[in-house]
Amino acid sequence: MARALHLIARPAGTPKDTDFELRAREPAPLQDGQFRVTVKYLSIDPAMRVWMSEAKSYWPPVPLGEVMRAQGIGEIVESRNPKFAVGQWVSAMTGAQDEFIGEGKGAHAFDAKRLPHPGWALSVFGATGMTAYFGLTDIGQAKAGEVLVVSAAAGAVGSNVVQIGKALGMRVVGIAGGAEKCAFVKDKLGADAAIDYKNEDVGKALRQHCPEGIDVYFDNVGGEILDEVLKRLRLKARIVLCGGISQYNAEGGTRGPANYLSMISSRARMEGFVVIDYLHRAEEAIAAMAPWVAAGKLSSKLDIVEGLDNFAAALRRVYSGANFGKQLVQI
Ligand SMILES: NC(=O)c1ccc[n+]([C@@H]2O[C@H](COP(=O)([O-])OP(=O)(O)OC[C@H]3O[C@@H](n4cnc5c(N)ncnc54)[C@H](OP(=O)(O)O)[C@@H]3O)[C@@H](O)[C@H]2O)c1
């Protein structure tokens, strides 16, 4: 029997186990052009909370009763498509299920043996790495010598942004929750400074670590931290609106930036982006990042939770900050 996790309720606040239902079904026979994938790992993305809701987004809400949307990787076990051979690993929007039937569109084969872990196809060499690379270089217009501040700096996207910023010759200040994550941001990722937003006054720490101001802010969290950064912008600063995780579970409205008028005098720009708009340029990002990976300047820490039935629990980890690295579910 194949198992799939169906979305059965729109969450109120943080997603609950009861928002999902695990259902079993008979595996369907393959048609010409199709291939069957045994899904091995699922990517857990903070935006899933948005996809579970009715909110207008770059993708429509997951319909109630449908399999939960998720990017996954796995091995082809049966194929009636000449371009996808049995034994190959593929990355695709598999959904939260242990078996996926693909037809080719949106599926990418990759050589898992060339990666330190297959999960890297969902982290640095997947949407996570693309988000970090294009957000920083294209939206952030990052330049050597500039000051970069990154929030959720110990997380999947943030840790790649810190490392890419350093590889580009920037001065990098990472913001993360707790002493252990801050030590990781400085000592392992190579940031020039780390700010523990759970135990430090972020405004004061930004004044200390960015005395001349901030050129690029890579925003993963929104909320109060964004407001503190807005007070310290340099002339022509760029704010990369990647995510707003501090607001995703908020009930009763999103907190907007109170200090946005500082962008007038600093002639700053704030721009949102979605990584799917850059997928056609994936080869360009991989060509830029592969030498950094080979040189040990860019890597991915994975945080793996076992079992499809722990999907909701794994998702809650990214909102509480329990995850330390790219959150995956292993099936
Ligand atoms: N625009 C795009 O195309 C795109 C693509 C991918 C991801 N994203 C966004 O990028 C951000 C990071 O995603 P990710 O997959 O890399 O997740 P992640 O950073 O690995 O995990 C989320 C982290 O956010 C931090 N966090 C949670 N609540 C917070 C709060 N209230 N205030 C400050 N920090 C908080 C936690 O770290 P601490 O322990 O440090 O608090 C947690 O570990 C998310 O906002 C996501 O939606 C955007």
Structure overview:
- Helices cover 25% and strands 25% of the residues.
- It has helices at residues 48-52, 127-139, 156-167, 179-188, 202-209, 223-230, 262-265, 282-294, 311-320, and strands at residues 2-7, 20-25, 35-43, 72-79, 89-92, 99-102, 108-110, 147-151, 171-176, 193-196, 214-219, 233-241, 269-272, 302-306, 326-330.
- Strand 9 (171-176), helix 4 and strand 10 (193-196) form a beta-alpha-beta unit.
- Bound molecules: NADP nicotinamide-adenine-dinucleotide phosphate (NAP).
Overview in brief:
The protein has helices spanning 48-52, 127-139, 156-167, 179-188, 202-209, 223-230, 262-265, 282-294, 311-320, and strands at residues 2-7, 20-25, 35-43, 72-79, 89-92, 99-102, 108-110, 147-151, 171-176, 193-196, 214-219, 233-241, 269-272, 302-306, 326-330.
